[in-house]
Every structure is written in C-alpha cells, then in structure tokens.
Amino acid sequence: MVVLETNKLNKFYQNNEIKISVLKNISLQFTSHEFCGIVGPSGSGKTTLLYVLSGLEKPSSGDISIFNKKWNEYSLLDIQNIRKKDISFIFQFYNLLPNLTVFENIEIVMMISENYNLDKITEVLEWVGMSKFKDLYPNQLSGGMQQRVAIARALVNHPKIIFADEPTGNLDYQNGLDIMNLLQKIYLEQNITIIMVTHNIDNLKFCSRKISLLDGMVKNDEKNSV
Fold it and tell me: In terms of DSSP H, where are the helices of the chain?
C-alpha cells in the first residue's frame, strides 16, 4: 500500500534575482513496510527532500500525498494529528530535552498525543535496551545511548512512517552499526516504513530500498535484499 507519494516535485529558493533549484521533478512512491535509504553527495538535495516529504517544508511546485491525501488538502488540525500519531522523526543530534529524564523524554510524546500508556513507555525502553537508564538525564548518556532514547521516542506511538535524518552521523563506527541494526529490526518486526537520509553508503546494506540523488534529481532507485 502506498503511504507517501510525490508527483513532479520541485523545490527552489529565490535570492533576489537568483533562483537556486534544490529538487527537480521528483516523482516517487513509498509503500507501507519498507526501509528506504536516500543517499547523495553534499548539496544533492537529500535532506531537503526528507523535509519536504515529511511536511516540514513546502514544495515550490508539484504534489505530495501522504496517506492518500495531499499535504495541502489537510486542515491544520489534521496535520497536527498526523504529526502526533502517524509520523515521527529521528535526528542526527538526538534533540532530547536536557532537563527531562530518559523516561520523561518519551512520556512527554505520549502526553502530547493524548495517548498516555505507561506500559508502552516501559516496553519501548526495553525494546531499545534503555530500560535500566530510564531515570538518567541526556547528559549522563553516551551518544549511542541518546540515539536509542530518540528511537524509543519515535516508536512509542507506533507511527506509520519514521523519517530519519542522518541517524548515525554523530556516532562512531560501532555505535552507528548498533543503531542501524536497531532501525533494521524496527523495519523487520514493527511494520513501520522508515525513510532515512544518510551520507554513509555502508548504511544502505540495512535498507530494503536505496535511492540516489544527484543535483536534485533521482539518479537511481532500486530494491535491496536485506
């Protein structure tokens, strides 16, 4: 089933009389339960594509449909509900709230979504291997541990799509490998679509699909055995 689709998507920025094209005529479909890795050299448009797909930025032209409806056809309330329950994000720098414990960083997501479930918080912390550290604060954790908490936070409402922006970009090799194994486990066991931007070509071996961008255009799009 198609959960996200673009049709002739373009994104440009205007600086006085200079028009800078970042995404050019991109048409893609993303289905439920796939792990898609998006790669490309610096400046290829991969992060912009992720932000436009997720609704964080608006396209300059073309259409984006999520859950069979165009982003611009949803009401503001609908968009808020989608962001609370149906999609979530994992970022390179974790974005944990420093004054909250591990448990509280996940708890606040459930409170915002109005879907509070204490057992679910405990479950996701166990699932990512962080239940023993639930009372610690982010500055008491390593980078790899903080990213595991960020993944638990992204998982707790069981979204349909997770958008991951360079999830291993701030980690050393072993921690990066651990995080990729965890993301692959989510894909295989949780029936969630993951759309990930990465600069690390080695991360693609964990993905079921890989898309290469060059100069804002899709250069290659192929399935991958995992």
Answer: 46-53, 76-81, 102-112, 118-127, 143-155, 173-190
Question: Amino acid identity of 48?
Answer: T
Report CA 158 to chain centroid distance, whole Å: 13
Task: Count Cβ atoms below 10 Å from residue 44 Cβ, excluding itself.
Answer: 21
For the chain, list the domains and their CATH numbers.
2-223 (3.40.50.300)
- Residue 215 φ then ψ, to 5°: 55, 40
- 175 is written with which tokens? 């921690």
pLDDT tens track for 164-200: 999 999 999 999 999 999 999 999 998 899 999 999 9
Residue 91's pLDDT is 92
Comparing CA positions, the residue from 115, 140, 2, 117 lying closest to residue 66 is: 2
